[in-house]
């Protein structure tokens, strides 16, 4: 869908103001003939049939008058509708502009504005839930509760300073101290959740360490439930990655410690459960995978630039391949 803020004077001059007569406006030929909206959008050529939904101030997300145009989901259709709206005088919004307007119009606070980006970029269900809770104002409400308690404490202290003759008896003093301790403890607990929240949002980086060809890639694939492996020569300069892409086995290589990558074309062939190994220099590289019920293997002797035709080793599953530091001796096993 496409959102348009109705503070745009050019759109208002073209008659879009009449949209506000109905909370929900629908027309079978909305882009074909916007006669009751003003000047025809799209000329005589039908672009699409759309639904227009009206969000009137101050109840919209940004607290401004907004119209949302729901067109069909094709990229070309959306682009054409967008072009016609721009031709009518609208301006494209900048990144995060609607969120910024909502913040400036006090519809959301800064923590909720940040939560919108966290919601969009969430990588797992826990990050999604945390961002949703923050967007609903859970963090904001907790901070506001701290502010209220602190303001109450500050007011009592100011009164005692302005009117010292009234004074604070021992019971009131103890209660005040207890309240301050409680609020400090609560604030510290909230602060302590920062690291947990960072892990939920960004995840954790782990390193699987072990000798050459002991099954590090197999362990990684078992954890991630993906068919992917990566190996390097002893210096780390030459890096090779193998994975399942659709039905094909793809290999990519890097000659600069993994900074830039080149995918080998064509793919090695169709298959699953790929594994890859290299000798200590990175010159000799060996791949193994399953094609249907057969074990296939291929080799490269020029740092992964070109590959031999695959060799069928026979029927089997879950293959593993290892080589020595020279690349002269290569061993394959499978179930």
From TrEMBL:
It holds the Pfam family MMR_HSR1. GO terms for cellular component: cytosol. One of its GO terms (biological process) is tRNA methylation. This is G domain-containing protein. Residues 43-107 form the GTP-binding protein TrmE N-terminal domain. PANTHER family: TRNA MODIFICATION GTPASE GTPBP3, TRNA MODIFICATION GTPASE GTPBP3, MITOCHONDRIAL. Residues 110-291 form the MnmE helical domain. It comes from marine sediment metagenome. Residues 206-236 form the G domain. Signal peptide: none annotated. CDD domains: Sialidase_non-viral (cd15482), TrmE_N (cd14858).
């Amino acid at each position: 869908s496409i959102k348009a803020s109705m503070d745009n004077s050019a759109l208002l001059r073209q008659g879009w103001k009449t949209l506000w007569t109905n909370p929900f406006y629908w027309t079978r030929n909305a882009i074909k003939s916007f006669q009751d909206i003003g000047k025809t959008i799209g000329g005589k050529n039908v672009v699409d049939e759309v639904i227009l939904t009206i969000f009137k101030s101050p109840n919209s997300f940004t607290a401004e008058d907004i119209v949302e145009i729901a067109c069909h989901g094709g990229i070309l259709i959306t682009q054409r509708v967008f072009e016609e709206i721009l031709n009518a005088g609208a301006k494209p919004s900048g990144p995060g502009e609607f969120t910024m307007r909502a913040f400036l119009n006090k519809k959301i606070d800064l923590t909720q504005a940040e939560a919108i980006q966290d919601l969009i970029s969430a990588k797992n269900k826990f990050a999604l839930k945390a961002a949703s809770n923050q967007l609903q104002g859970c963090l904001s409400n907790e901070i506001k509760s701290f502010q209220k308690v602190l303001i109450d404490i500050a007011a009592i202290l100011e009164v005692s300073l302005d009117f010292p003759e009234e004074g604070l008896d021992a019971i009131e003093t103890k209660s005040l101290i207890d309240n301050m301790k409680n609020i400090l403890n609560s604030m510290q607990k909230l602060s302590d959740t920062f690291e947990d929240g960072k892990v939920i949002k960004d995840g954790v980086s782990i390193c699987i360490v072990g000798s050459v060809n002991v099954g590090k890639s197999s362990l990684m694939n078992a954890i991630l439930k993906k068919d992917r492996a990566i190996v390097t020569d002893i210096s780390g300069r030459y890096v090779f990655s193998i994975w399942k892409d659709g039905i094909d086995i793809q290999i990519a290589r890097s000659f600069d410690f993994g900074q830039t990558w080149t995918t080998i074309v064509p793919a090695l062939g169709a298959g699953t459960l790929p594994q890859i190994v290299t000798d200590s220099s990175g010159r000799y590289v060996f791949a193994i995978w399953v094609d249907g019920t057969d074990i296939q293997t291929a080799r490269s002797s020029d740092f992964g630039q070109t590959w031999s035709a695959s060799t069928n080793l026979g029927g089997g599953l879950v293959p593993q391949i290892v080589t020595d530091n020279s690349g002269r001796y290569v061993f394959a096993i499978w179930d």
